[in-house]
Amino acid sequence: MLYPPRTAARCTFKEHHGDEFVVVLSGEVELRFPDRVERLAAGDSAYFRGGVPHYLRSLGPEPAEVLAVITAPPAN
Q: In 3D, which of 69, 54, 58 has the Cα closest to residue 14?
């Protein structure tokens, strides 16, 4: 479970191995990538490569509740 901060100053781009799937359970978030911004509300989801720099920021008065699932990279 993630509870993204509301202030952009507390948000930093992150990247990691594997893919990421997020579902907004409550509230509204900004999903930011270096080249675009997506706005997601409760019930919305997104799937993306974890290696792409990204961050989530809550947009409402209360922190949003987000379920994040990150896959492990395949074993070689």
A: 54
- What the block records as the tokens of 38 is 């997506």
The rounded distance, in Å, linking the Cα atoms of 11 and 15 is 13
Structure tokens at 20: 């990421």
pLDDT of residue 10: 82
Radius of gyration of the chain (CA): 12
Kindly state the percentage of the chain with pLDDT values over 90.
84
- Written as one string, the DSSP assignment of 19-39 is EEEEEEEESEEEEEETTEEEE
Provide the whole-model pTM. 0.89
Cα(46)–Cα(75) distance, rounded to whole angstroms?
24
Read off the pLDDT of residues 26-36 as tens digits, 9 standing for 90 and up: 999 999 999 99
Beta-carbon count within 10 A of 42 CB? 14
SS3 45: strand
